[in-house]
Write a structure and sequence with these properties.
single chain, alpha+beta, five-stranded antiparallel sheet, two-stranded antiparallel ribbon, 2 helices, globular
Amino acid sequence: MRLLKRLFTALLLVTSLAALGQERTPRDYAKGVRKERAKKDKHFRQDDDSPIPPAGRRAFKGLHYYPADAAYRVPATFVRDSSQAPFKMKTSTSRLPEYRKYGELHFQLEGKPLVLNVYQNLELIKQEKYRDYLFIPFTDETNGHASYGGGRYLDFRIPATNAVTLDFNQAYNPYCAYGGAYSCPIPPAENALPLAVEAGEKTYQEH
């Protein structure tokens, strides 16, 4: 139940960020992203289910991010491919949650054609509110210095059309980045991007 509650909280934040795509100008969009990031900081500082260890919450001043950049909010084509067999995704512990590849996102960054696999957790879809939830764990060349070494995540929802928007400003760290006894999925090798994604959440720094 704690895992579901943490995921639901994260999804609420991501849903709010997704709505920012309706903002009319890059300035409006960046302002909205800053507002949602402040909301997440407040949650991490105050709420009982915060991943920040209790001893560090009083000194917590906020997460570190790249500035919101509309260049990392890119059009993508969603190609559904849910015919592959389920597999057990590796995590930072011995836990092996069962996923299946649900599809692919085809897009471009820095003029390079790229693909990210999109996954579906076979346990979560038993819950009504997660029926359309999809998961994009990925790594890139910022990992280990500017961003968390274990990679970052993007949340996604089953889209109504194949034309979607992929927003790396929403990239966030797994809870393992903050310390504590968490079990976090490790991004599969096929989701390693061959460039630096300078968007989203940076490495967590204790204050």
